[in-house]
Design a protein that fits this description.
The chain has 164 residues and is mainly α. It is 63% helix and 7% strand. Strands 1-2-3 form a 3-stranded antiparallel sheet, with no helix packed on it.
């Protein structure tokens, strides 16, 4: 494979710099972490809104896990999902919101996607949801570490806020 001359601007809109074909790519546009935050938020925002507008159905579903105080847990879950989504979209206190959402995902994933207790196709489906949640948790931890990026209200990237 050959090399591209100098830093080649692949797209003016996204400022993706390619130094050598197949070896080094540097994605530097502030839209990258912003779009990443939006993609993480999608599942939380839609789930939180569904909890509010389909309250009774969600109470019945969560009750299948035999948890006490189901309405209280659902209210807290809706606040974490909607409030966390707002924080991640705007970037305001995104690190704290991402950490709270990460911690929220741990019991949620274990309680609702316990594929080891299921059989047949249900086990496969639950394992897929379990792995999906683990991947989302990884994305949240990246936000905790790196911050929301330049397109955010408040705190910036890890280097800007910690002097790293």
């Amino acid at each position: 494979m050959g090399t591209l001359p100098g830093p080649v601007l692949c797209s003016p809109a996204y400022r993706i710099y390619v130094y050598r074909l197949g070896t080094t790519m540097k994605f530097t546009h502030p839209a990258v972490p912003f779009v990443g935050r939006l993609l993480i938020v999608y599942i939380f925002a839609t789930s939180g809104i569904a909890k509010v507008f389909s309250w009774q159905a969600n109470v019945q579903y969560v009750s299948t896990r035999h948890l006490p105080m189901v309405p209280v847990f659902l209210a807290v879950a809706a606040m974490i999902e909607i409030g966390g989504s707002i924080c991640l979209i705007t970037g305001y206190r995104a690190r704290e919101a991402a950490m709270i959402m990460f911690l929220y995902m741990i019991p949620l994933t274990v309680l609702f996607h316990n594929y080891w207790a299921a059989t047949g196709m249900l086990a496969g489906m639950q394992e897929t949801h379990f792995r999906k949640n683990v991947a989302i948790m990884g994305g949240l931890l990246i936000v905790v570490y790196a911050g929301p990026g330049k397109w955010a209200i408040g705190e910036r990237s890890r280097g800007a806020s910690h002097g790293d």
